[in-house]
């Protein structure tokens, strides 16, 4: 298989078509598909700016729209459109059933050609109203009919965002696999220069003979910019997709039932904290200092960014940001937004005051304590800020409006009629260096709270009579306790986002980080009765920017989670082995991009939607150095009876990467604070990791060795066979 993740969508459509074939009514003119076929809604993601009456997918799906469903521009040329339907060969027709339409005036306020961001309060309100309307449809048929009506009327970005959230949260669609965003909006992920070449390839070369268009690793900047050394992380398509997905699962606003999820706020904190930890790890590996928090919003911002992305909806490029741009008060009537930097400063000061006083004030002027376990959740919902905020008037909307302030710094009063930069769109934010400075600041607020709550005692860290006696990392073709990183090329099919171009796949080939699979092997001595434990695995750099060992106070913020899983310990010695592709943090490479070829069975395919959230496996291990980057690999076995969360077994047959994404419709499956045992300041007298250790913890020195080779697309090029496991 030459291309690894680009095949999933055509195969999914084949699967849908196969299912549909069971229900086809063959007529002389064409074949028709039952309107309420579950897969029909997926065709709405195909070429989102092309009118819906044009054929969709490789199967020539034709939606036969009632006249009132056509966009106003086309209602006067119904007969021409009907002729088009009749002229499509081998078409499959879907007779659209009209419904009594709800009021859509609010979501329709945003122009079709404008950019959309859920960070903007006005956009958020419109999108939330649309999500609510979608969720309010009683049957799948009504929901589909409304989605069809909206498709050519509502802003395509907002439509895709709202439709995706609604599909994820409706019981009649939540098992359908959402299309990967890079295929729907490739303009948010790949070099804008590629599109004219891709259109040329699609127009000139027949479908089977097209060659992939190669995007070099260094297309957004050169090494004159030191920040460019970590562009491979910032611009990785997989982690940008994850960030977008994460915000779909955990929207800021909308109906309570979709916002109020178990430990939602804490998960926001932990997911973004881990992103910063991972970014800092990559920076240290590339001899860059840890990211500086964006603390002073009145100083010019040193970091610049030139995204080189087009915007297919607005037909404009994404605005860049020059070095040393000054952030300014925002007053854009166009976007119905007005706030001052001073507002953010006021909210920040109130939040700090609440942290130091140990409680927040709700709208009824009551004090709510920021407790050891739940304080972080309350705090996050105020900062994030979601509709769960205890007091939006007092604590504001600091995080979201920070994104907006940075996103409009090139045109704060809209005098140039410019749209926002990549920092204000959850699909693209992670590309921009300023994202990490902003979130390092946001994280420092959470860390302030973690500093004032009690530290873990030895007893809270121990597991009586359980001792980790050996830890080993085994990577094929690498010395013991070594990880191996290198580059890999992979292909993405742009054709579903190449609106108005001929059909058939058009691939771009991009380069990303990859690591060889590895096994963690542990020996655990249990001198108590048989019992349950939880294995927690973390990795952190061993030395700081100057090559000196770190205090645990600082190092704890750099520990990245690698895995967490339950084990049953028998009395005596236990050997535990765990493969990297089983990680609770990461989802397999194929699943990030939803390659159905790796899954096959339809039931499993349907489970993708909720199993599709997780850190991409290819970014699990940070890039090493050619000479080997020194790191510390930490393993802990905690008491499973304390960790356990009572809940019914999962409905879906898939292994979700819950560490960063949680579980759909279920509680977070670990009762400890997220990030335990590194989420708090170490106890008094403990300065180093070694002093922190209790017998149920193990630590080894490891190296991450990077090789500057780039292997070709496909799993066959990644060493997949793991070694035989000998005795420790
Ligand atoms: Cu995910 Cu600021 O929340 O980017």
From TrEMBL:
Where in the cell?
Secreted
Looking up Gene3D superfamilies in the UniProt record yields: Di-copper center containing domain from catechol oxidase, Hemocyanin, C-terminal domain, Hemocyanin, N-terminal domain
Family per record: Belongs to the tyrosinase family.
Keyword field? Copper, Disulfide bond, Metal-binding, Monooxygenase, Oxidoreductase, Secreted, Signal
Q: What is its main location?
A: secreted
Q: List the GO molecular function terms.
A: metal ion binding; tyrosinase activity
Q: Name one GO cellular component term.
A: extracellular region
Could you tell me the Gene Ontology terms of the biological process aspect for this record? melanin metabolic process
The organism named in the record is Diabolocatantops pinguis
Give the top-rank taxon of the lineage listed in the UniProt record for this protein: Eukaryota
Leader sequence residues: 1-21
Show the taxonomic lineage: Eukaryota, Metazoa, Ecdysozoa, Arthropoda, Hexapoda
Q: Which PROSITE patterns match?
A: HEMOCYANIN_1, HEMOCYANIN_2, TYROSINASE_2
The protein, known as? Pro-phenoloxidase 1
Needs which cofactor? Cu(2+)
InterPro entries in the record, alphabetically? Di-copper_centre_dom_sf, Hemocyanin/hexamerin, Hemocyanin/hexamerin_mid_dom, Hemocyanin_C, Hemocyanin_C_sf, Hemocyanin_N, Hemocyanin_N_sf, Ig_E-set
Q: Which residues form the Tyrosinase copper-binding domain?
A: 432-443
